[in-house]
Amino acid sequence: MEEVRRIGAGGDYTIVLKRSGDQYVTLCLELEVAGIGYTREEALENTRLAIESYLEAMEADSLPPERPVPLNVLQEFLAGEERETVGEEPKLKVLAYA
Q1: In angstroms, what CA-CA distances link 7 with 17, 47, 67, 72, 82?
Q2: pTM for the whole thing?
Q3: pLDDT tens for residues 2-31?
């Protein structure tokens, strides 16, 4: 089971965290930024730093930062290797627009 976290880097971003082999990998759903680390904390910190760097680069180039993860990239990230629970079951809010 993946863990979904919200971390701030000038705003709130949704981070999906999962174990992959002997490391943890992350994916920011709003910005298509990833991170990796040997502990959950290291992976989340590396992701926070990557988000900050990404946002600085987008601002320097006067580009809009939002770049949501394409569905096929999210499916690939979630598929494959056996996943383990890395915390309590996340509470997700599902929004639907007509």
Answers
A1: 12, 9, 17, 23, 25
A2: 0.67
A3: 555 555 445 688 888 999 889 999 998 888
